Amino acid sequence: xxxxxxxxxxxxxxxxxxxxxxxxxxxxxxxxxxxxxxxxxxxxxxxxxxxxxxxxxxxxxxxxxxxxxxxxxxxxxxxxxxxxxxxxxxxxxxxxxxxxxxxxxxxxxxxxxxxxxxxxxxxxxxxxxxxxxxxxxxxxxxxxxxxxxxxxxxxxxxxxxxxxxxxxxxxxxxxxxxxxxxxxxxxxxxxxxxxxxxxxxxxxxxxxxxxxxxxxxxxxxxxxxxxxxxxxxxxxxxxxxxxxxxxxxxxxxxxxxxxxxxxxxxxxxxxxxxxxxxxxxxxxxxxxxxxxxxxxxxxxxxxxxxxxxxxxxxxxxxxxxxxxxxxxxxxxxxxxxxxxxxxxxxxxxxxxxxxxxxxxxxxxxxxxxxxxxxxxxxxxxxxxxxxxxxxxxxxxxxxxxxxxxxxxxxxxxxxxxxxxxxxxxxxxxxxxxxxxxxxxxxxxxxxxxxxxxxxxxxxxxxxxxxxxx
Length: 469
Hints:
By secondary structure, the chain is an alpha/beta fold.
């Protein structure tokens, strides 16, 4: 491992000219002690606007497409003019215009086709990060720091799962060594686009929700970085969502597994897959706040002493899908396997899974925006069984929420699960389903949506996670 620091700046940290200037100063300070590569997200709200534009194109809304593109271009042009002195603006404005033209070309194709090919969507969505990288590199250069904007498509090699690609680390490491190391060695800061990559044959891909975090960890691993710093708009990883629990505390240190579980179960600090590339090399991660530089942040490490439940997190936009055999001719375990395989083919993440032993019924939790795709896949897989009523109709309950209690040391706390369930029940919140992994790292609990916030507060207080405890 060498003296390389990889830093990732999220959408809010890239959200305006002022925020980019602060990010540039952070980079300048870090460069005094380390070789630095940074990864940038699109400016806040831009990815949503790009996606909305593609939907409008698919629906044939030509005026909506034009208006959204006008807004996207205007925001970046305005940021450029605020960010850079007049003599440095024209080159960057030309880059912005060129990228907007690329997006217009893709949108026009979708308008003509009346559909959104996954490959075209990935190519289009990466425009947001490319715009952000161009502005950030220019900002660094205008402050006297040599920098270059680099499209991650030229560095991060992935498989061909468009919309949710995974890295080919061996090939990515080779490209990073050729493209990034020489530039850092020459004193430059590479500004790499987050969220995107490309297949071996250079077809554009994206890395899924919040993929810029994942991009940063991929590059940190590929470069054998000393540390990875992820800059957001919160002070670190917290014991609960402070909007739900005012007493929530920032955690000084968490393990890889705790961070991954918290992210997977709804905590918004890290992308769920961020940790995976770092595990083998044990690269530590810092979650820091670019809006509060005095806050120390949270350090994420391979191992720490288990102390019991560390945090409680929640997800509201979820749905519980239940499946029950209607005939003894259906073997439950085989049915579960087919259902899970079907969801895997549809690229649907299962957030929690639980089953009964006698009736062989089972239920699983997924994100609400994936329900339609999940139902389509399940109905195709179980078409024969549903037609002959060997399986009851698939049930969907979207009036639910997920609560997860996470901590490495929970196995050493007898009676903890009972205390958690009692605390939730005391708030008159009904528990619908429970799932706990074999590692006892996470207890996942599904409750009615209208009781989710009360349940989170009750568990946080019962487990004494807050400032006042």
